[in-house]
Amino acid sequence: SNWLPFLVWFQFSNSHMFINDVFTSCGQWLEDQTKKLHKDMKKSTEADLAMSKAAVKISADLLSNPLCEQDQAFLDSMNALDTAMKRMDSFNQEKVNQIQKTVIDPLKKYSGVFPSLNMAVKRREQALQDYKRLQSKVEKYEEKEKTGPVMVKLHQAREELRPVRDDFEAKNKQLLDEMPKFYHSRIDYFQPSFEALIRAQVVYFTEMYKIFNDLTDQIDQAGLTDEQRERETEAKLSELRALSIVADD
Amino acid sequence: MEVPRRLPPSSFTLTLPKPAASAPASFVPEKDPEEEENLREEDEAGEETFISTEEAEPGASVVERSNSNLSSRDSFSEESGGPMQLMAIEELVQSERNYLRLLQLSTVTIRGNLLKLQPPLLNLNSMFLHVDEVMDASSRLLSLLDQKRVRPGDPLFLQTLCESFLSLSSDIEAAYKEYLANYNHITVVENSYKQREGLWNEIVRVIKASAPEVNATSLTFFLVMPVQRIARYPLLLQTIQKHTDPAHPAYALLEHTAHTSIALNCGINEYKRFREVADKYKKTETLTIKDKINRLNSHSIAKKTARLSQQIKHETGITPKLVDEEFDALQDFFYVLEHGILELLENVETYLHHLQGFLACRTEEFDLDMDGEKAPICYKEITTALRQWILPTFEKRMRTLIHRPLCALRDLLVGPRNLIRKRLDKLLDYELIEAKSNLSYEEHAVANTYRTINTLLLNELPQFNGVALQMIWSMLGTFSCLHRDLASDMEQLFQSFAQQLPHSSLSPGAFWEWAESMALEGARRLETLCRSVEDTLNAPVVQPLSPSSQRRLKQLMDKHGSGKIWQAAAVVSSRDLDLNLAKGELVAVISEMDTRGDRRRWLVDAGGRRGYAPSSKLIRYHQPAEDPPPSPHLTLPDGVTGIRRHSYSPESRPLTSQPCFQVMAAYDFAARGSHEVSLRAGERVRVLEPHDKRGNPEWSLVEARGGQRGYVPSNYLTLMPLGVGVGPPGSYLPH
């Protein structure tokens, strides 16, 4: 498990200078990871769809070529191939639709939270700066000789400080509440997505096996290893090269 | 108390989060030794040095750091790695031990007990045929590690691990090859047992009694483990690699080991396919397709009349004087073939292009710190296998068996094509002289050339056409076979995960309903979070009113009512007839637009003065709430939105949020005095004070295991979210 070297979680919220770092680096890391995963998933799905469509085009183009009409057995094979490809494409589309709903969309929504969170962290930091500024102003007056005007100014400064401090406390408390919960929530949030990804692929490849197992029985020469296939292909190419009409100039 | 400052470990092997510009300088990735040397020299005087690897956001806190006089042997050397690497290594070793133990449990204890059943189970021993070699490979690996007497924390351990694995790799391949090639037989036998309910219940009872601590309900629960284990090595090794500094002495070896583990899987899968093909061939000899392909020989092509040739003759309107139907049929077939080959090649190349695009998106490389959860780990393993050896093998076979021969075939088209064109040229010449009775020498030559070419084509084109078509047909059969093998490899992989996922037993409809509802639920919770964050953000700060402001407020409220009170958010200094307002001054809004209907200028009453003010500088004024007495325990109800205003004294501020994190030592720390306390990496601590006596937050007062208290460097501590798998390595998957 990837340990994030956070700094210590202060139960006393005294050391505010570190909380900002915790929030920003944790948040940034999580944001970067989810954005990357979202981007990769999208691209992967697009490539997947394109691959499937390309496979369909292979068989469809062949089928529409008059070559097929030359031999009934060849035509039957091409029909079978075309049917298989189209079926696989429709299963693929279904798989992609499921993934879109249960994985890609949730990833996008999760990423969409970060602008608000980042803004909240910024605002908290601003509030902290305001708080510190007014706090030091109060302290300045507290250190002075307690004359009448000084006491008045002190009182005013304290009054000015109070709401600003309250505002900071509220923002701080909210983030201290929400950030860990948000970070922790990723587990429950993404668990279903991963299960869905796996399940969708299980279904897809199970279908693929069934379809292509049948098709292979129908259109492929049985019992050939890759070496045997290569040898047969090479033999045919040699046969062709031996023809005079196939000149190598 | 004298607070010596020290550098954190000089080279991290952690995969640190890559923070943005506002990252604190405490997350320092690998520094080069030269830079460190310079710093050490500079800081002899004990001045504080400021190190930042990213640009710090203004106002962001930065941790000041200086080096100390400590020699380098007190900081981590590169060999020892970091806690992440250590965990990954221990994961591999621990899970191997666990795996071997469970296999032994099944082959010795469970099998022994099952053998005692009456009537005796048919074929039971056949299920355990090849498991001994697999267990042998595993125990040899573990004993090699134990022999060397190195522990996972030892710097040499990684090297030992890689060397041991590599030395056994051919034995591992041999053992797993046979096992996986015969695995289908195991499921077949178990399914035969399942057919008889009484028998199956008896078997399950024996299994549960023999291994009560394992939650197993079938024999395949154990026997599928080698299938899973071999596919797991790449991910385990790559995880170690991910957390290992490339400068680590054993890095190259580790990389080689990881590649070897992938090659093992490729070899094992290839062997499995080889055996399947051999078995199948023995069982069913379907020669019909082979017959059909072979029938496409030269004679059959020549004899067929292409409808096309008739069509073309009618359409062109150029009827050559010599109409050779047989030749035309051959020629048309050739052109159609040529078009088919070129199109097929283009389509195959497009397909391969998208396949490569798919392989490039490495979706298994994410890191959401969820490695303790089953579903993400399963997904990573499946996807690693798919992208790193299953699909690459598929691609390689496609290129070797389809793309390359297709390219070669395309190249051979040139010859006949040129010759056909040449023949047509010669034919035109021939037609001109053909009628003549007396031919000159040159004219004879022309006639002969034509006749030669024509005859040659007539003889050989049929064969060309036929063989080319045979090749295409075979390639398509191969294409189908490649897909079947791909799907079969994936299915084998899935078998080992089926039992581990919580919702795998749901029916498809139920499963998708659950998944979609979870997605909606998640979206709803995110939205709640966003709203509550935004509400707090937008709540304005309420300033107390000065006496004069209080009088103004009363005056305006008496005259206009409390709903119309607004406040200047900034100084309003204006020209013309507009009002000047101080920041914070209260006004009552009379009209939200001016006489010309401009909604940006509002007519306001500023306590007697009336005039226009820009609406952009006004915010609605909210009355401050009554301050409640400071209370030591504040509990917020869940999901509170809206403005939260709480005033409480600084002294009583215990956080009432649930502790979602726990604190642990991220690295070993050796105390150098009585005021410090030693820590071991991974040890849980309790923070007593997050700073030292002078308030310096670089040191924290902690209570370690055993109750000792003392100071430790704050950046040696880490937060571990509660609830994420923090158990001992390998605890999240039964293995």
Automatic annotation (TrEMBL), chain A:
The keyword S-adenosyl-L-methionine does not apply. One of its GO terms (molecular function) is lipid binding. SUPFAM superfamilies: BAR/IMD domain-like. Residues 117-144 form a coiled coil. Residues 1-228 form the BAR domain. Signal peptide: none annotated. It comes from the Eukaryota. It holds the Pfam family BAR. GO terms for cellular component: actin cytoskeleton; cytoplasm. Keywords: Cell cycle, Cell division, Coiled coil, Cytoplasm, Cytoskeleton, Septation. GO terms for biological process: actin cortical patch localization; cell division; developmental growth; endocytosis; plasma membrane tubulation. It is found in: Cytoplasm, Cytoskeleton. Involved in cytokinesis and septation where it has a role in the localization of F-actin. This is Bridging integrator 3. It comes from Scophthalmus maximus.
TrEMBL record, chain B:
Residues 64-80 have a biased composition (Low complexity). InterPro entries: AH/BAR_dom_sf (IPR027267), DBL_dom_sf (IPR035899), DH_dom (IPR000219), Dynamin-Rho_GEF (IPR051492), SH3-like_dom_sf (IPR036028), SH3_domain (IPR001452). It holds the Pfam family RhoGEF. One of its GO terms (molecular function) is guanyl-nucleotide exchange factor activity. It comes from the Eukaryota. Keywords: SH3 domain. Residues 658-722 form the SH3 domain. Residues 32-47 have a biased composition (Acidic residues). Residues 1-81 are annotated as: Disordered. Coiled coil: none annotated. Residues 84-271 form the DH domain. GO terms for cellular component: cytoplasm. Signal peptide: none annotated. PANTHER family: NUCLEAR FUSION PROTEIN FUS2 (PTHR22834), RHO GUANINE NUCLEOTIDE EXCHANGE FACTOR 37 (PTHR22834:SF9). This is Putative rho guanine nucleotide exchange factor 37. It comes from Scophthalmus maximus. The lineage of its organism: Eukaryota, Metazoa, Chordata, Craniata, Vertebrata.
